[in-house]
Amino acid sequence: MNEIVNPESLLGAKEAGAKESGAKSEGVTETFFGGCPHDCPDTCSMLFDVKDGQLQGVRGNPDHPMTRGGLCVKLKDYEKRHYHPDRLLHPMKRVGPKGSKQFERISWDEALDTIVARWKAIIDQYGPQAIAPYSYLGNQGLVHGLNGGDAFFNRLGATVTERTFCGEGSCTAWLLTVGPTAGLDPDSYIHSKYIVIWACNSVSTNLHHWAIVKDAQKRGAKVVVIDAYASRTAKGADWHIAPKPGTDGALAMALINAIIAQGLVDQDYVDNYTVGFEELKERARTRTPEWAEGITGVPAEDIRTLARELATAQPAAIRMGVALERHYGGGQTIRAVTCIPALTGAWRHVGGGVTQFGVWEHPYRFDVICRPDLIPEGTRVVSNLQIGRALTGEMQLDPPIMSMMCWNSNPVTQAPETDKIVAGLMREDLFMVSAEHFISDTASYADILLPATMGAEMEDMILSWGHLYLTYNTKCAEAPGEAIPNNEIFRRLAARLGFEEENFKWTDSECLEHYVDWSSPACEGIDLAYMREHGFARLKVGTPDDRAPHRAGNFPTPTGKCMLKVEGATNFVAPPFRQMYEGFQPGEALDPLPDYLGPRESHANDPELAARYPLNIVSPKSHYFLNSCYANMEDKQRGQGEQFVMISEADAEARGIRDGDRVQVANDRGAFKGVARITDDVRAGIVVATLGYWRQLNEGTVNSISSGAFTDMGHAPSFSDNLVEVSRAN
Ligand SMILES: Nc1nc2c(c(=O)[nH]1)N[C@H]1C(S)=C(S)[C@@H](COP(=O)(O)OP(=O)(O)OC[C@H]3O[C@@H](n4cnc5c(=O)[nH]c(N)nc54)[C@H](O)[C@@H]3O)O[C@H]1N2
Ligand SMILES: Nc1nc2c(c(=O)[nH]1)N[C@H]1C(S)=C(S)[C@@H](COP(=O)(O)OP(=O)(O)OC[C@H]3O[C@@H](n4cnc5c(=O)[nH]c(N)nc54)[C@H](O)[C@@H]3O)O[C@H]1N2
Ligand code: SF4
Ligand SMILES: [Mo]
């Protein structure tokens, strides 16, 4: 195996204006530390093999306790993505009709001058809020993911685009209940005796945690997966429980009922470390397993068994997936689930408790990264989930959005109400800029395209939301064509606009010095030099073998206790991913106690709609794609197959659909097509179609039918709360 070289000298040379790093070691393959920049809880530590400035191959870092030397199917040949023939290599301008993908190469100067001139004209006529940024965690780097863009657009005075794609409803519920704690360490599951994976398809989306779960299973742990269908993960479990989508809140309330009714409460833990037990007990009194059976379709006896095992097989662990938040009552569901380990006392044990996001204990300085202090007072906030409504004018905005810049995100495939987004992007008077690796579905509508660098071509540290390690990524390969890192794009734009703040002048290395609170206790003994030398570092927040942060309460809530009940709370959009801003108007009052709020689009809640669109669709992640990334690459397409629609035998038969038929999935918002896959893996009434397929390669996408309505908390998306009808397509 190649030796890991310390890249520091190379970086220094680069910044002093020397040749590209790769050129230093002609003909020799050297290995550098990388970090997977994708939006994935595993944030793998990688090894980049580089020769003559070219990425030759990638491997998982064998020394990283979670990566354990392995990468997923998406990243195992990451170099192919770097050198894909369709990669965007030069700035381009649109020369055909919007969306026609007719572009012509231009220089960086022309591209940036055009952007600045158009923006200045828009600001003169409409004010800066007529410009809207659009980004997400397509790159999770602190420098090239979160930074640059946020600080830049805040300084510009642009509309703040709220980013609530993923986890903000969960974060709101989590903060209300237990506060900003990483909770149960995913590494500690090796000590768990009972593991519940709830609305998470770990085999596809959290592979390195699944490996730990499998090890625990070999050591005798029972693994339970609660999923709306028989996912790959459900098939690897000892027990698959399949509630109807969006009914998990009823299941969670019935578990609370059954834990109490069976006398399984850890009363000492409850008395000392929780607030509101008596009220929760009263609330749960009528939420019996029989009541929940009628809603969820899960037999009452199974609910009692799950409650008993969860309470008695300690340490018991619950891993919540983001899909738990994806229906109208998602926030309340997550509050209910988060209460369970406090009732059973699971927090007392290493390997017991509940896991949401590790990010809460990472010492990232989001205020320095995103500069919310630069946002002019009174700036409006528009939701990234409702960008179609904003662009088309359905949402009344004064001034209207006249320009949008998109990077690190692909809303045309990923955001709901696609047809509205496309209609908005087709507006002749909208000036659209996209920084991208490929001409994605969104970039197809750009007026100016900017080529961005990829993984091995830029220095960064990768935010990890799913574990407790810091991750470093070396700039070790030459960027092809004229691609530059996101942060350099914003540095150049800031310089042209005369922004004087020092953060717009920091090099990427200097950014990293500022973006992590290196003096925090979690970073004891760790600094940037350490990161460069070792590639990753475990935060000093306890080890997987001794960490039980809430053994004796110690919750970072206002009371220091687990809040089963929260008095006077109002809805809010939680940090950290939503773009930092002050002055969010407090939302509607929240129920002090958790409860079941069913889905919005259901037979119970909207029978008229359900009569026309009787099927509930779930659109989880694709195994071979990373959101919409890789869906344009042939080998991944081969693995994933074309867009399919999983449907039960009964539903297929009632519609005259045979296995392999081309079908249309539709509702009032839009339609997409796919191939019917008749299977027992879904129950009647539910269809499953996975996410990420490109609209330009398929007829519509799953988000053509998705609603942009928020759930109960944190302006979260309702991707699991959509009714559709499926029919044979001609
Ligand atoms: N129906 C349905 N919809 C969903 C979901 C679902 O489960 N169901 N999941 C939701 C979730 S959890 C999320 S997080 C969102 C994700 O939504 P997005 O973040 O929009 O997802 P990606 O497809 O990863 O888009 C990232 C884009 O950024 C580009 N990119 C990557 N790195 C860089 C870079 O360094 N610079 C620049 N300029 N561009 C870069 C990639 O090429 C890609 O086109 O989707 C949401 N949408
Ligand atoms: N291969 C792959 N890995 C990924 C991604 C990817 O696109 N592809 N995306 C990354 C991102 S951005 C994220 S946020 C994570 C997300 O990873 P996960 O948390 O696993 O999220 P999803 O895949 O959206 O959904 C997980 C499971 O929840 C189930 N589900 C949906 N609705 C419900 C419901 O109402 N109740 C119950 N009980 N189950 C439900 C789905 O059937 C699915 O099997 O994965 C990351 N990793
Ligand atoms: S996508 Fe996730 S599992 Fe795959 S290499 Fe990246 S961090 Fe690891
Ligand atoms: Mo996500």
UniProtKB/TrEMBL annotation:
Extract the Gene3D superfamilies matched here.
2.40.40.20, 3.40.50.740, ADC-like domains, Dimethylsulfoxide Reductase, domain 2, Formate dehydrogenase/DMSO reductase
Record's InterPro entries?
Answer: Asp_de-COase-like_dom_sf, MoPterin_dinucl-bd_dom, Mopterin_OxRdtase, Mopterin_OxRdtase_4Fe-4S_dom, Mopterin_OxRdtase_prok_CS, Prok_Mopterin_Oxidored, YoaE_C
Q: What is this protein called?
A: Dimethyl sulfoxide reductase chain YnfF
Q: Does the keyword Membrane apply?
A: no
Q: Where is the 4Fe-4S Mo/W bis-MGD-type domain?
A: 29-86
Naturally occurring in which organism (per UniProt): Methylobacterium hispanicum
Q: Name one Pfam family in it.
A: Molybdop_Fe4S4
State its cofactor.
Mo-bis(molybdopterin guanine dinucleotide)
**Where are the annotated segments for Disordered?**
1-24
Task: Identify the coding gene.
Answer: ynfF
